[in-house]
Amino acid sequence: QLVESGGGLVQPGGSLRLSCDVSGFTLDYYAIVWFRQASGKEREFVASVSSSGRNTEYANSVTGRFTITRNFDKTTVYLQMTSLKVEDTATYSCALGARLTNSYLYWGQGTQVTVSS
Questions:
Q1: How many helices (H) and strands (E) does the chain have?
Q2: What backbone torsions phi and psi does residue 88 show, to the nearest 5 degrees?
């Protein structure tokens, strides 16, 4: 199972960095994807990084504000979130799998991000 951390309460305009511990898995063949789900809404795609680490993809709503990266030894994937908005409030989860087919083998338990003044 993947393990997320780094969520919390932040004011609008603030920043947070989420982490997804993937140390028990190999990223050579799988993408890591961040999703979020706000209360009463469906889960939505946020960002992904390919198995090679060279390709990233972002939802339109976070482009220019969020950045997905992974560390050199491929044990952690980060989601740096800046210029946070109230509408970014959600539970953020990471998943390992195939972005193109939207099929995922493992999920984390999620970490809550609340953006509020």
A1: 0, 11
A2: -85, -5
